[in-house]
TrEMBL record, chain A:
Keywords: Cell membrane, Membrane, Transmembrane, Transmembrane helix
Pfam families in the record: BPD_transp_2 (PF02653)
Spans through the membrane: 20-40, 46-65, 77-95, 101-125, 182-200, 231-250, 270-292, 304-323, 343-364, 385-410
Localization, UniProt: Cell membrane
Predominant localisation class: membrane
Organism: Neoaquamicrobium microcysteis
Source lineage: Bacteria, Pseudomonadati, Pseudomonadota, Alphaproteobacteria, Hyphomicrobiales
Membrane topology, record value: Multi-pass membrane protein
GO cellular component: plasma membrane
Name the UniProt record assigns to this protein: Branched-chain amino acid ABC transporter permease
GO MF entry, a single one: branched-chain amino acid transmembrane transporter activity
UniProtKB/TrEMBL annotation, chain B:
Pfam families tied to this protein: ABC_tran, BCA_ABC_TP_C
Keyword Transcription belongs to the record: no
Keyword Plastid among UniProt keywords: no
InterPro entries in the record: AAA+_ATPase (IPR003593), ABC_AA/LPS_Transport (IPR051120), ABC_transporter-like_ATP-bd (IPR003439), BCA_ABC_TP_C (IPR032823), P-loop_NTPase (IPR027417)
Entry GO CC: plasma membrane
Keywords assigned by UniProt, alphabetized: ATP-binding, Nucleotide-binding, Transport
Matches recorded under PANTHER family: ABC TRANSPORTER ATP-BINDING PROTEIN, CONSERVED COMPONENT OF ABC TRANSPORTER FOR NATURAL AMINO ACIDS-RELATED
Gene Ontology molecular function: any one: ATP binding
Span of domain ABC transporter: 10-251
Recorded superkingdom: Bacteria
Protein name: ABC transporter ATP-binding protein
Automatic annotation (TrEMBL), chain C:
Family label: Belongs to the binding-protein-dependent transport system permease family. LivHM subfamily.
UniProt GO MF annotations: transmembrane transporter activity
Membrane topology qualifier: Multi-pass membrane protein
PANTHER family with a match to the protein in the record: ABC TRANSPORTER ATP-BINDING PROTEIN, BRANCHED-CHAIN AMINO ACID TRANSPORT SYSTEM PERMEASE PROTEIN LIVH
Keyword annotations of the record: Amino-acid transport, Cell membrane, Membrane, Transmembrane, Transmembrane helix, Transport
Cellular component annotations (GO), alphabetically ordered: plasma membrane
Stated name of the protein: Branched-chain amino acid ABC transporter permease
Keyword Lyase on entry: no
Cellular location(s): Cell membrane
Membrane-spanning residues: 12-39, 59-83, 95-116, 136-158, 189-213, 225-251, 282-305
Record flagged with keyword Zinc-finger: no
InterPro entries: ABC_transp_permease (IPR001851), BCAA_transport_permease (IPR052157)
GO biological process: amino acid transport
Length: 430, 254, 316
């Protein structure tokens, strides 16, 4: 009896110290969200962080499907968009009639909208799994996006539906006019959603989702109906996507049909996967990184989606665990205190990697200028160096820089892998 | 129904199953009494695994009745059959490879413990589930591997986990499909002891090729040849049965 | 009325056969390799742009040969150096790889040809009216496209029925998963099948380009419909893909031809005045306007009533 008691306290992963660490993370997250505006206080930074908060909720909701339940959906923006439309219409209704409802409660409307349509479309889509499921969600996405252009009264056609968030009941005098107030509204909902979605992973349902991801057929032999599991996961994921859509509606005061389209659906796939689907924090990293990339790249180049697409393919091919996967690979090294042995190799990889990217960018931008922007003339400036794209030189330089960088990078990567394997503690007793 | 006889745990009558033009199961009758350890033997391709797939709901029979404790379960989906108290293992290891061993077993206990699709209660706080999971892990001797992803277990360990998943729920009718396949001699002995233990208060139906295991464990043996049960009797009488000798034992266990 | 029906049928079959040119390659790739190539429509788009660029320099007929071969080679390279690498990470990774490819190909096309439609014209040698029915001229090029797709369909059928590769493809269609047991040349067969599959899509691109609009969004417009075709037909079923291609081709063409709305049907009455208020947008929508969403409605209906698709036998 005594012996079994000691085993039992040691067996589950969460020991008492583990609990402390867990709450520590939540406190740190809350503090970070609170203090961020003091570090990045410009208007641009605030609106970027608001957008990131929205996208974090969206990407995490997507990972309830992809990472947790193994369902690849290509129509997730539908729930984001419909949640947004539900919120906007409710805002206009409440604002028009001066009902006493404060703004911070409105993401609930988005949640209900997302849940409603999650249940509706989930009933059709979750009958199937795998590739068929992916195609069905793609079809549903197209169906909703094209219907939106027909049902103009509800969706407002191409212009969309606008609203005024400041027109609500004020609590403690907050008008939610200034971006900083909207930031805190989004941060609070983001925090709440992260906590809830994390909590769901640690429930009987959350664990069965993982089981369905691993082996749906076996699940039905331990009493569960895999399609019911998929259905609930799909509905809940719709709910949180709806929250994100509601936050977006409040942030931008406009929702339009494009937000439900294939581009938006694809973008959430990219950010979630680049961040890492196997780790709860992965989509958070992905949402922050991709939002930031979109921002700086769209400033620098018109073909920025190409870079994001190439990054995505790179991750799929070489780092299927995403960024979070790469980071969590370092954990055993950190625990064994051997990380310092590998770090120089990572740095060694980084330098030629950056060179290769610069070379590739040069090739891409030069050909882009050559073929499309020819109307602007053959001269362009890259990395502050002006040159003529009709000569061979920039192409040759780009190709050489890219090839040499790539070659060195691959060599460095091999070295780093060997170093990693050597630094990895031998698998012994746990 | 005969009054002297208790309701069988499993009763099959005239069960048929075809794949395209091939009739694999050609009218199987089979009775397994409650608490019995019943082995199904037969040459390769006789349809043993297909029979298990039919009983457990993986396939839908083309004809005949399958009763679990007197209740017709033919054509039900696997999860409904499982909830009625029948659980099975697979010939080819069928576990949740990316989940830890602990998680594998815990998932298998959840429905039976009444937690269903609950997404509002913390799974770590369910003491009863934790105790049950420990119990099973101790029983299959994988307690010290609890935190390892099931996919990296050794073959023998995965087979043990397979049995663990099968017994973790509340099922009292257990189907084991070749539990000792591909094992070393020492491993077989451990698995036999494990099967003996887990079948104590349950009804057991198993497919097995190792005749030592069959005659060691089984109370009754059914012989399946070309989709039909040609004999179903005690081990002694099966050994003596001429038809069985000819069809099966004569070639393999002579 | 009769002329509308005749011309719509011709156009519907034409559109359906073009869809099937793509869906057949997609289906064979899926059956053999277990991967639904999400970038299939992107290869079709590449075919159209290569066709445009080559026919601008060398003429249409060389383009009809060279463009599909080029795209097929690109496809083989993608299979060899991309897809095969990703294979070990599982199906989701493979799907995502082809998904990423759609992004990259679209962006590459925009990088070279921009976002505006290019001037890809019907070749002069085929720019005349083939025949005239009820004072409607039917363009020769359309007839040519129809003939080419039917010819390829027949060639495909013969290849599958008569050749060794065809036997392997057949085996893959009926017993997916068995292909892996065919021995070590399976890698080369995969590469070939992928190349030929996307090459077929490229042919569709070369010949459809002058009829439809050759623009960088053409893959995004057609891709989803293509996937509806293979799901509605039943994943992995060539016959199903043919039926679904024709079905969707005809449904969409006829929908465009019939420009009626609920409001038209009910005319002006007391009832219609009431309905108009309640149904608002739906009331005035014409069938032509909902033509783009017809395939998806079909998809949902098929899924509700025949979850495995019209002729599918497989669950996933």
């Amino acid at each position: 009896m005594n012996q079994s008691a000691t085993i039992s306290s040691a067996a589950p992963a969460s020991t008492r110290a583990g609990l402390l660490v867990r709450y520590g993370i939540w406190i740190a997250l809350a503090l970070t969200l609170l203090l961020l505006p003091y570090v990045f206080s410009s208007r641009l930074a605030l609106s970027t962080m608001s957008l990131m908060g929205t996208m974090i909720v969206f990407a995490l909701s997507y990972n309830m499907l992809l990472g947790q339940t193994g369902l690849l959906s290509f129509g997730h923006a539908v729930f984001f968009g419909l949640g947004g439309f539900a919120t906007v219409h409710m805002l206009n209704l409440v604002g028009g009639n001066s009902y006493p409802i404060p703004l911070p409660l409105f993401p609930v409307v988005g949640a209900l909208g997302g849940l409603f349509f999650g249940v509706l479309f989930g009933a059709v889509a979750t009958k199937r799994a795998g590739t068929a499921f992916a195609m069905i969600t793609l079809g549903i996405g197209e169906l909703v996006a094209s219907s939106a252009l027909i049902l103009r009264r509800f969706f407002g056609g191409e212009e969309g539906i606008t609203t005024d968030r400041t027109d609500m009941l004020r609590v403690f005098g907050y008008s939610f006019g200034p971006q900083i107030q909207v930031y805190y509204l989004i941060a609070a909902w983001c925090f709440l959603s992260i906590v809830l979605m994390y909590a769901i992973t640690r429930t009987p349902f959350g664990r069965i989702c993982n089981a369905v991801r691993d082996n749906p057929q076996r699940v039905s032999f331990i009493g569960y109906d895999p399609s019911t599991v998929r259905f609930i996961a799909f509905s809940l994921s719709g709910l949180f996507a709806g929250v994100a859509g509601g936050l977006s509606a409040i942030n931008f005061e406009i929702v339009n049909a494009a937000q439900m389209g294939a581009v938006e659906s694809g973008s959430v796939v990219l950010m979630t996967y680049i961040g890492g689907v196997g780790n709860f924090a992965g989509p958070i990293i992905g949402a922050i990184l991709v939002t930031w990339l979109q921002l700086i790249l769209s400033d620098a180049t018109t073909v920025w989606p190409l870079y994001v697409g190439l990054l995505f393919i790179g991750v799929v091919m070489f780092a299927p665990g995403g960024i979070a996967g790469l980071l969590s690979m370092q954990q055993p090294l950190l625990a064994a205190r051997t990380l310092h042995r590998v770090l120089p190799y990572y740095f060694l990889m980084f330098v030629p990697g950056a060179v290769a990217v610069a070379g590739l960018a040069m090739l891409i931008e030069t050909s882009h200028q050559f073929s499309i922007r020819a109307a602007y003339g053959p001269r362009m400036t890259l990395y502050s160096i002006p040159f003529d794209v009709t000569t061979l030189t920039p192409w040759a330089i780009g190709a050489v820089v890219f090839a040499v960088g790539l070659w060195l990078f691959l060599r460095a990567a091999r070295l780093a892998r060997n170093a990693y394997d050597a630094a990895l503690p031998q698998r012994g007793n746990r | 129904m005969n009054e002297a006889r208790p309701v069988p745990a499993i009763e099959l009558a005239g069960v048929r199953k075809s794949f395209g033009p091939m009739e694999i199961i050609r009218g199987v009758d089979l009775v397994v009494a409650p608490g019995e350890r019943h082995a199904v033997i037969g040459p390769n391709g006789a349809g043993k695994s297909t029979l298990f797939h039919l009983i457990s709901g993986h396939y839908r029979p083309d004809g005949g009745t399958i009763e679990l404790r007197g209740e017709d379960i033919a054509g039900m989906p696997p999860q409904l059959i499982n909830r009625r108290g029948l659980s099975r293992s697979f010939q080819v290891t069928n576990i949740f490879p990316r989940l830890s061993v602990w998680e594998n077993v815990r998932c298998a206990t959840l429905w039976a413990m009444g937690h269903k699709y609950a997404f509002w209660k913390g799974v770590e706080r369910l003491d009863e589930v934790r105790r049950r999971t420990e119990e099973i892990l101790t029983e299959i001797d994988l307690m010290d591997r609890a935190d390892v992803p099931a996919g990296v277990l050794t073959y023998g360990e995965q087979r043990a986990l397979e049995i663990g998943l099968t017994i973790a729920g509340s099922a009292d009718v257990i189907l084991l499909d070749e539990p000792t396949a591909g094992m070393s001699h020492a491993e077989v002995e451990r698995v036999v002891a494990l099967i003996r233990k887990v079948s104590e208060n349950r009804t057991l139906l198993m497919i097995e090729h190792d005749m030592h295991v069959v005659f060691d464990l089984a109370d009754r043996i059914s012989v399946l040849v070309y989709g039909q049960v040609i004999a179903s009797d005690t081990p002694e009488r099966i050994k003596a049965n001429a038809a069985v000798q000819q069809a099966y034992l004569g070639t393999e266990a002579a | 009325m009769l002329e509308i029906i005749l011309v719509s049928t011709l156009n519907g079959v034409l559109y359906g056969m073009l869809l099937f040119l793509m869906a057949s390659g997609l289906t064979v790739i899926f059956s053999m390799m277990g991967v639904l190539n999400l970038a299939h429509a992107s290869f079709y788009m590449l075919g159209a742009f290569f066709g445009f660029e080559i026919s601008r320099r060398l003429g249409f007929w060389p383009a009809l040969i060279i463009a599909p071969v080029l795209v097929g080679l690109i496809g083989m390279a993608v299979e060899r150096y991309g897809l095969r690498r990703v294979h070990k990470h599982g199906h989701v990774a493979e799907l995502l790889f082809t998904f990423g490819l759609t992004f990259v190909i679209t962006e590459m096309v925009e990088m070279f040809w921009g976002k505006l439609p290019v001037d890809y014209r019907v070749p002069p040698s085929l720019d005349f009216a083939a025949f005239t029915v009820f004072s409607v001229n039917y363009p020769a090029f359309r007839l040519f496209v129809l003939l080419i797709s039917v010819a390829i369909f027949i060639a495909l059928l013969l290849t599958i029925k008569r050749t060794r590769i065809g036997l392997i493809v057949q085996a893959a269609l009926t017993h997916p998963g068995m292909v892996g047991m065919l021995g070590h040349n399976v890698d080369r067969i995969f590469m070939l099948v992928f190349g030929v599959g996307v090459g077929l899509a490229a042919i569709a691109g070369v010949i459809a380009g002058p009829i439809l609009i050759t623009q960088s969004n053409m893959a995004a417009l057609l891709g989803p419909i293509l996937f509806v075709v293979v799901v509605v037909g039943g994943l992995g079923s060539l016959g199903g893909a043919l039926v679904a291609s024709l079905l969707i081709g005809l449904v969409q063409t006829f929908a465009v031809a019939f420009n009626v709305s609920l409001a038209d049907l009910f005319g002006t009455s007391q009832l219609s005045a009431v309905l108009e208020v309640w149904l608002a947008d739906i009331w005035r929508v014409t069938i032509a306007q909902i033509a783009p969403i017809m395939p998806y409605i079909l998809l949902v209906l098929v899924l509700i009533f025949r979850p495995r698709g019209l002729m599918g036998t497989r669950d996933t």
